Amino acid sequence: MLRLSRHKSLKLPGRIQESCAEHLSVFAALKARDPEGAEAMMKSHLLRQRGALRALDAGGAAMAADAKAVRAPPALRVAGAED
């Protein structure tokens, strides 16, 4: 199921880059020994992944904006990680 969702969602324009940036944010928080930050970043990533899948399932390009609407709170964003 995870493999299928990854394969499907990465077809959205820009999603590969977004997903990589999200993972880098999680790793940066882990490296900084910030478990709460890592957890928040991972939750944000999963919510954005869900939004991307919903956008694909709905088949509408307008729905793809939902995938970008979910962002980590500014205080939890890692410096240097692109949105």
Automatic annotation (TrEMBL):
InterPro entries: GntR_C, TF_FadR/GntR_C. Keywords: DNA-binding, Transcription, Transcription regulation. It comes from Cupriavidus taiwanensis. The lineage of its organism: Bacteria, Pseudomonadati, Pseudomonadota, Betaproteobacteria, Burkholderiales. This is Transcriptional regulator, GntR-family. It comes from the Bacteria. SUPFAM superfamilies: GntR ligand-binding domain-like (SSF48008). GO terms for molecular function: DNA binding. Residues 3-46 form the GntR C-terminal domain. Signal peptide: none annotated.
